[in-house]
Each structure stands twice: as structure tokens, then as C-alpha cells.
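A quick word before the example. In earlier lectures we treated sequence and structure as two separate objects. From today on, think of them as two lines of the same record. Here is Pre-C2HC domain-containing protein written that way.
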Amino acid sequence: MSVIDSSNVSISDGNKVPFNDNYMDHNSEYVQPSKRHTAKISVMHNLNDSVVSENKFDKLSVDDNEAEQGVIIPIKRPPPIMLQRTEHFIQDLKKINDEWGPVESKLGGPYIKLFTQSDEACYILTTFLRTNDMGYFIIVPRSESPIKVVIRGLSRDLNVDVLKKALVEEYEFVVDKVVQLTRFKTKEPLELFQVTLLNIEVNKASGKLLPCSI
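And the structure line, produced from the sequence above:
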């Protein structure tokens, strides 16, 4: 902002002419003076004045660790397990918490929602429910649907439990179930075995291949 010094202001004072009826409109509240009676203002700038430049944000510090960390993405939990609500659902929940472990539950109509923190915990809990004949189902998104693989070239007399054990212990897969395919009409066992794997990172790791799979 420019500052006007009164010493640098010069006002030309000419002969004063009194206002009369010729210079004033009696019907108007405002009278505009003639140009000869206006003050002439001249402003003198001192070019030698120093300009002070200060960045008020210089004192702010930025933590390099915080800048490198970025945004923390929350871990996505698996979908809830819909446990069928029976007359003895209180005893069922107590059995789950006592024998399997603490689980977060929420009533939802004819079903009870059971929440787990990871895919592995979800798989173990569903296995526990099947073992204890507790009805349940899971609404799985298409992107998280199980991985199904068909193995060929094995003996048709091979027991599915033996094959499942080998996949878990030797190849370190998390196997949901193994079934042997049969002919539609004659029900004759084929040399084809369908393996259902959970859609988790352990089963999708690079370099892990099923033997003789198609």
C-alpha cells in the first residue's frame, strides 16, 4: 500500500470565486466544483526503500517418514458366515466361543452373522461348523469365488482323502474339498478329480502348480 506524505502534496490555490446562482443548482443537493478549484496530488515514491520479503511457512517442518508412508489401506475382512438360527442358537454360539474361539456375531433375521478377521480363520470356522452339523452359508462375491481345478492322469482307484492330504502336506495348498468325477449315465468313476481351493494368496502364489492339472 502506498503512503502519501503530506509534504509531497501540492495544492494550487488560485483566485477564489464565490459561488452564486450561476454556479449552483438550487434543486440539487450536490455541487460539483470546477476543475480549476480541485487539488492536484503528486506522489513521490522512494525507489531506494528496501522490500522485506519473508516466507511465513519457512518455520514449518515436514516429516520425511510421514511423506514416504502415504495412505494406509485398511485390510478387507472376508464376508460374514450366515449361521442358521435354530431353537438352540444360544448353545451353538456358546459352543463356538468355547471350543473354536471368540467370534464376533450379530443377529440378522433367521440367521446369525459370524465375522472373522482373515480368510484362513473363515475357512477354519466353516470346517468347525460342518463338523458339528451347524447349518450355514456364505455370500461370496464373484471376485472371491473358489478356485476349481481338475486333475487328470491319476488312478481311478485313488482315494480322495489321500489326494487331499497330499495336496495339503506336500504342496501346501489350502484345500476345501476333492471329488472324483463320474460318467453322467453309468456313474462310472473317471480318472478325473476336481479340487476346490480357497481363493486366498496362499493358493495363488507364483510357482505353485498342481500335478497333472488342466
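Notice the following. DSSP finds four helices and seven strands in the chain. We will return to this example when we discuss secondary structure assignment.
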